[in-house]
Structures are given as structure tokens and as C-alpha cells.
């Protein structure tokens, strides 16, 4: 008999040689599994880290560290345009494939990687406009409301945004002028969440007024997004964790936001929110009720709550991430800020008494270049957008055919840095790349611009393109133009890099500024 290990309390005893034997058998099994999956996969010819070929845990580990964009960038620099990042997943840097994959037909289906951002209702998982992967169900959910997010659909929302931009400026002036340093990152978050509240319910959610995450929603959202980002790697895990009907082990739920959505819906039906809501300036809740009335057989109140929630969950942090990038780079590079200021002055927009109209802001070429460059250098989604290869397989630019159901991952962060499209300085922040260069012919510029636009996946593409794009852009252009027109803003420490945590949406921290009125 060898040495025995006794587990107190359980009355179990293990023989030392049995333990060693079990460890050895487990190691052998793991090795056989790793080697087996390495040699048996049709993707074995594609380069990538050894562990990534056998398990998605490798990717999950890196995504959980919040620096996936840097890891995948390094891997593409090392291996080239194709990197195997999972047993059945390859990440590709082929802008020429975007039009084929992100098409209107939707035959390249979204993978289950987005399923975690759903809810469990009475034991059933309920998907939303973002996480629904079934093309027919997705179309049914999108059709009744798509028109409210088109450029014409968002135009009537401008007064709602004006109200919040005015409040944003008032709060900053009251609290920080003259010259008191504050973190612009936090205030941008309060701004975008309040805009979403106001365009959706005609009432801000209250973060600007309170100057803090008073109800914990913002920090809950951060934790939920961290969780979603990890579940993109092994979506099945979510069934055991957050969607476990017996014992839920997930991130904090969106109970607060769900409560807000339900309460506002009930208040609207009862006419109890007339203190802030007027039919003259309709909001999304009005539109969703209109959609229900027009489609009584397919739209019910649960659907309305789902649409309301998606506005908040998908609309605020994405826009905040992009807006922070605009300000960070404009403030870090004094020549960018000064060129922007000159453009605003030349357009007679200095010290505007009210928020600058979207149409005016959109017509400023340098501001436009700045926003495009910010969306390029750090896209609001910097994880891979995954699609299944459809029946019949797919041919890569290399000539290789990929079998049906292989997962192709397109990371906007990578595609937006493609040197063939964006130039050798693609890693640098340079808004001028979006403008016609000196000596460049109109035709050359037009074709260069088209190539850059075609490679830009910052809002996704095709049938699953971002529904909130026009709303997000309106928020961004208007507030940047208004702030630059009104204030002198200086970054506290221009040499200090900020911190970027790449969650489902990138989260930046550390943009300390001081402001003065112009
Ligand atoms: C600058 C801000 C934003 C960025 C960078 C952004 C980015 C994206 C991207 C890349 C996708 C495609 C995801 C995929 O293919 O898997 C997407 C989809 C989506 N976005 Fe946005 N988004 C922004 C703002 C918004 C806003 C304001 C809303 C508010 C409604 C929104 C709602 C959605 C929805 C519902 C989808 C799924 C659309 C579908 O599958 O039909 N987004 N977004």
C-alpha cells in the first residue's frame, strides 16, 4: 500500500499512486485532444498561437484582460492577414471581403458570439435586435422600427439632443469653470446616457444633474459588457453562468434599466409623464408605440421594452467611447485642436448661444475628418464581428476555399489599420488622411476615400449594420462643434497616455482637462 491522503470530513481516502495515475491519464487525454484537434482541422494550415488551434479558452483569457485589440494586432503583424484564433475561428484582415460578407442578404449569419447579451424570461432565452442570429426573426424585429433610425427618422430628435448638450455645458460651467480639473471621460459617459434617456423617454436619466453614477447602472453596464466580451469566445458558457435557470452566476443584470423602461412605458400609457413629454417633440417611446399600433399581430409590450433597452445598452457606451477618442486626440495634438477652432471660427460659430445644428456641424470638413479618424483609430467595437461561412463554402483572396460553418472574424480595429488601404502611417492619428491632399487629383482622392470607406467596419455592415449610426453621429458632431466653439479646453498632462480597456466596447479612462469660456 502506498501513502494514503485522507480528505477530512468526507471520509474519502486516496492512494498516492492512484492520484499520480489520474494526473498522468488527464495529461495524456489533454495532449491527445490538443494534437488531435491540431491535425484534424481543415484550418490547420493557417498560422496562429498553438493553444488557439485547440481551445477557445486561449482567446477568452486574452479578451478577459481587456487588451484583445493589441493582441490581435500583434498577431496580424506577425502572421499576416489570416490568423487562427480558435479551433474553428480565423481572424482576417481582408477589406476586400467586407462587401461579400456583410451583405444585405444576410446569408453570412452572425455567430452565437453575441448571444450572451440576451435575457432569460421564464426559463427561455429572449434575444434582442442585436443578439438575434436567426435572419427571419431579426428582420421581423427590425422592420417595424428601422425607419425611425434613418437620417430622416433621427432628424426630429435634434431638440432632445439640444436640451442635453445645453445641460452638459451648464453643468461643466457650473462645476469646473474657471480652471478646475475634471475627468472628461466620466462626463462624456453621463452625457451619452442622458442623451439616450432623453431621445427615448423625453427625460434624461439623471447622470449630468447628479454628476455621478448615482444608481450604479453605469458600473453594472461595465461589468455586463466585460462579461459579454468574454462570452463571445465560448458562448455556451453563458448557458451555465448567466442563463442558468437554477443558480445564476452572471454579471449584475440590467434590472435597473429594465425597471426604467417598464415604468416609462406604463407612465406613457397612463399619460402620467406629460410634465416632460410632449407630442410635439416625439421620442422613441412614441415611435415604438406607433410601431405596435401599426403591427398589432407582431409587436407587443415586451417587444417595446426590448427596443427601449437596446437603445440604452447599445447606444450610450458605444457613442461615449467614440466621443472620448475624438476629444483625447484633438486635445493631445494642439495643431488638431487649433485647426478645428479655426474652422469653427471661419464658419462664424464662435461662442454659440445654443447647440450647433447638426447640419451645420456635419458640413465642417475638418470636424468630419476628425470624427472619421477617431472611429478608425479606436472603433466603438474593437472585438471581432463573427460570421459563419454560408453553405457552399467561401473562397479567400488566397484562393483557398473555407468549408461551410467556419467562423470568420472581422475586427474593425484591424481592418481600420490596413496599411494598403489607409497608408503606411495607419497606426497614427491623422485626420488629414480623410481630406484631399495637396497635389492629389480629384479622381485619386475619390478612389482613396472610397477604399477607406469600404474598409471601415466601425458601424458593421449589411443587414446587421448598426441601427443607431445616425443617432450616434448626430450626438458626436453636435457636441464637439459646440464645445470647441464655446470653450478653451486644455489637457492636464498631454504626455500621459490614457488607459483603454477593450471590453465589448472600449472603455477609456484618464482624460483630465481644464476648461475656460472663450
Ligand atoms: C459611435 C457609436 C456606435 C458604434 C461605433 C456602434 C457600432 C456598432 C457595430 C460595429 C455594430 C455591428 C455589430 C455586429 O455586426 O455584430 C452595431 C450594431 C448595432 N448597434 Fe451600434 N454602434 C454605435 C451606436 C449605436 C446606437 C446609438 C445605437 C442605438 C440604438 C446602436 C444600436 C445598435 C444595434 C441595435 C445593433 C444591431 C443591429 C442589427 O443587428 O440589426 N448602436 N453597432
UniProtKB/TrEMBL annotation:
<dbReference type="GO" id="GO:0005506">
    <property type="term" value="F:iron ion binding"/>
</dbReference>
<dbReference type="GO" id="GO:0020037">
    <property type="term" value="F:heme binding"/>
</dbReference>
<dbReference type="Pfam" id="PF00067">
    <property type="entry name" value="p450"/>
</dbReference>
<keyword id="KW-1133">Transmembrane helix</keyword>
<dbReference type="GO" id="GO:0016705">
    <property type="term" value="F:oxidoreductase activity, acting on paired donors, with incorporation or reduction of molecular oxygen"/>
</dbReference>
<keyword id="KW-0503">Monooxygenase</keyword>
<dbReference type="InterPro" id="IPR001128">
    <property type="entry name" value="Cyt_P450"/>
</dbReference>
<keyword id="KW-0349">Heme</keyword>
<keyword id="KW-0812">Transmembrane</keyword>
<keyword id="KW-0408">Iron</keyword>
<feature type="binding site" description="axial binding residue">
    <location>
        <position position="466"/>
    </location>
    <ligand>
        <name>heme</name>
    </ligand>
</feature>
<keyword id="KW-0560">Oxidoreductase</keyword>
<keyword id="KW-0479">Metal-binding</keyword>
<dbReference type="InterPro" id="IPR002401">
    <property type="entry name" value="Cyt_P450_E_grp-I"/>
</dbReference>
<protein>
    <submittedName>
        <fullName>Cytochrome P450</fullName>
    </submittedName>
</protein>
<dbReference type="InterPro" id="IPR036396">
    <property type="entry name" value="Cyt_P450_sf"/>
</dbReference>
<keyword id="KW-0472">Membrane</keyword>
<dbReference type="GO" id="GO:0004497">
    <property type="term" value="F:monooxygenase activity"/>
</dbReference>
<dbReference type="InterPro" id="IPR017972">
    <property type="entry name" value="Cyt_P450_CS"/>
</dbReference>
<dbReference type="InterPro" id="IPR050121">
    <property type="entry name" value="Cytochrome_P450_monoxygenase"/>
</dbReference>
<comment type="similarity">
    <text>Belongs to the cytochrome P450 family.</text>
</comment>
<feature type="transmembrane region" description="Helical">
    <location>
        <begin position="21"/>
        <end position="39"/>
    </location>
</feature>
